Amino acid sequence: MVLLGPQVDPLPPGALAEPPRGGMRALTKSNIIRHGTAGWTRLAYFPRRPAPAPSDAQIASREPMRFARKQYFAENPDNIAIWNEQHPVDYFCEAVKRWIAGHSPASSCLYAHDEESAITVTASATASLNTMILRFTPSDNYALWGIAIIRSRYEIVTPTWIMLRYIHATTTLNEQTHLDCRLRPGVYHYRFAAAEITGRLGPFSTDVFDTIL
User: Is the model's pLDDT at 164 over the cut of 90?
Assistant: First the structure.
């Protein structure tokens, strides 16, 4: 509690409506009490509750939107106009819907393809300090615009949409690197798939894994 101005009387019982908790403290407008022309005389600080860690489903849903946001601003105005005029769902939500349906986000809402891409990915995983170093190389780069990375604590036999952790934007045949950071000790498994600008998603790579000590 911080007291400002001429009135320094203590807060009445029950002024702090929430029990103290850990974390940083923050002010909201409702915590500031105005007393006529004297101005703001008392400030009640309430603890900020730490935000819960995102669930696997939240991560897997947000990642296509993050990837689409990066691609959206590289689109030409004509294509953006087509999205706005022809499609009932915007560029970003459609990216999530396509991923959940087993496809890649697509650049065009008029000519998106659902069949499987022929691009394969070879990959490796190397553990470091709280970090997994992921290296992967696509077999082709025609229409390529990203590599989807899925992760599990167990061997990935059947890939599912909820395993998505990152879509690495790339258009080249060069080996790419992604760092999966802030990992707790344990075994982590990964598989990779090529995402085409046309909406095709390639077959997932073989399972690669390593152990964070």
Answer: yes
Q: Inter-axis angle of helices 56-72 and 91-100, to 10 degrees? A: 130
**Cβ–Cβ < 8 Å for 31, 41:** no
> Using one digit for the tens of pLDDT, what is the confidence trace for 193-213?
999 999 999 999 999 999 999
Contact 63, 147 (CB under 8 A): no
Class assignment of domain 56-212? mainly beta
Q: Which residues make Cβ contacts (< 8 Å) with residue 93, sequence separation at least 6?
A: 65
Angle subtended at Cα 64 by Cα 146 and Cα 155, rounded to the nearest 5 degrees:
75
* Residue the block writes with tokens 């915007």: 90
- CATH 2.60.40.10 maps onto the chain at 56-212
As given in the structure block, the two tokens for residue 16 are: 């702090």
Q: What are the tens digits of pLDDT across the range 67-119?
A: 998 888 888 888 888 888 877 678 889 999 999 999 999 998 888 999 999 99
Task: Collect all residues with Cβ–Cβ distance below 8 Å to 55 and sequence separation of at least 6.
Answer: none
- List, as one string, the DSSP characters of 151-178: EESS--SS--GGGEEEEE---SSS-EEE
Q: What φ, ψ does residue 44 adopt, rounded to 5°?
A: -110, 120
Q: How many residues does the chain have?
A: 213
